Amino acid sequence: MNFFKHLSKLKIGKATIKTPFFEIDFAIGDKDKDAAWILYIEIVTRIASQQMADDEGDDKTALDSLFNIFKLTRELIKTSGRDCKEFSKIAIVILNLVLRPFLTKWHKGDDTKAHIENHHAEFRNDLHEVQDNMRIYTSILAEMLELEDVTSFVMQTK
Predict the structure, then answer these.
(1) Contact between 31 and 87 (Cβ < 8 Å)
(2) Residue pair 134/12 in contact by the 8 Å Cβ criterion
(3) Beta-carbon neighbour count of residue 109 at 10 Å?
(4) pTM, whole model, 2 decimals?
(5) 3-class SS at 11?
(6) CB neighbours (10 Å) of residue 23?
(7) What is the distance between the alpha carbons of residues 110 and 115, in angstroms, rounded to a whole number?
(8) How far is residue 17 from each of residues 10, 35, 59, 60, 93, measured CA to CA in Å?
(9) 99-139 pLDDT, tens per residue?
(10) What is the pLDDT of residues 51-110, one digit of tens each?
(11) What kind and span of H or E run contains 158?
(12) Dist CA 43 CA 120 (whole Å)
């Protein structure tokens, strides 16, 4: 399995993924699939992959949800162990190049809610970009699991 077609679509700002990474063939094992399933379900049922109109929802709650995805992913990598290499390769890219920059930019400690409220339009723009990347991630996870990605089926529309 080669995930080049998905990874090459990521919008990751100034960061880059080294070209040889795109050429890696992945041999997905049961531990990889177990971790991918847990994370896939979490992402497709959260704001991480679901559209939210700019006048809907709560920005701080959306940020917290993405932070929880970050924590869960890191925990899955640690607890799944060395038999979960393929999942970990992809997950670490998403953590470090998609979620970490977003979370670092918007998490301001005690001032987080006020900071986001003062920059609502910019936050939502950044959130939409992260959501686009997370939908790419769900397509990778679905491919790892050999199932049809339901992300686009469950997206809310207005």
Answers:
(1) yes
(2) no
(3) 6
(4) 0.83
(5) coil
(6) 9
(7) 9
(8) 10, 23, 29, 29, 8
(9) 999 999 999 888 889 999 999 999 999 999 999 999 989 98
(10) 888 888 899 999 999 999 999 999 999 999 989 988 998 899 899 989 999 999 999 888
(11) none
(12) 23
